[in-house]
C-alpha cells in the first residue's frame, strides 16, 4: 500500500507558477538616465543659442560703433574742407597768397588733430596706441596683457582713430577696429558670464576674440559675408 501511494505521489504533476516582478531600482535608473539625457540636450541647445545671440549682438554693437566713427570722420573732414577754403573769401583763389594760406591752414588742422589724437590716447589709455593687431594675436595665443581690452581702451581707441582719420592722414582702420571689436567682445563676455558661466571659460573667450576680429573686417570693408 505504501509503495502504491508513493508511486501515486510520484506520478502526480506539480503545479507551476510564473510571477512577474518589477525592479523599481532599475526603472528609476532608466528614468534618471532619460532625464539626464534630455537635460544635456537642453543645455547644448542653450549653449548654441547663447553663442548665436552673443555673436548677433556683437555684430550689431560693432556696426553701430563703426557708423559712429564714420560720422565723426566725415564731420572732421568737412571742418577741414571749410578751414582750407576759408581764405577764398579774402584772397583770389588763383593767387599765391591763397595757396600759401590754404596750405598753412591744412597743415595746422592736420597736425592739430593728430596731436589731439595722440594726447587723448596717452592720457585716457596708453594701451590704445598702435594698430592693435599684434596685441590681439598675442592675447588669442594665451598671453595676458593688462588693460588692453578695457572700457577706457575702447573709448580711447574709438575717438583716437576718428581724430586720426579725420585729419586726412593715410592710415588704415582695420587694425584699430579689430582692437575695438575685441574690447567689445571682452566687455560683453564679462557681462554675459554673470548669467552664463560658460562665457567665463578662457577658451570660449578666445573664440569670442577671433569672432570679433572677423566682425571688424566685415564692418570695415562693409562685407558681412567676407568677414
From TrEMBL:
- Identify the keywords attached in UniProt to this record, alphabetized: Membrane, Repeat, Transmembrane, Transmembrane helix
Give the record's membrane topology.
Multi-pass membrane protein
Task: Cite the Gene3D superfamilies for this sequence.
Answer: Clc chloride channel (1.10.3080.10)
What does the record list as coiled-coil region(s)? none
Does the record carry Repeat as a key word? yes
Checking SUPFAM superfamilies in the record gives: Clc chloride channel (SSF81340)
Membrane-spanning ranges = 52-76, 96-124, 145-165
**UniProt GO MF annotations:** voltage-gated chloride channel activity
Question: Major place of localization?
Answer: membrane
Q: Record's superkingdom?
A: Eukaryota
| One cellular-component annotation, GO | plasma membrane
- Which Pfam families does the record match to this protein? Voltage_CLC (PF00654)
Checking PANTHER family in the record gives: CHLORIDE CHANNEL PROTEIN (PTHR45720:SF13), CHLORIDE CHANNEL PROTEIN 2 (PTHR45720)
From the Swiss-Prot or TrEMBL record, give the protein name. Answer: Uncharacterized protein
Organism annotation:
Diploscapter pachys
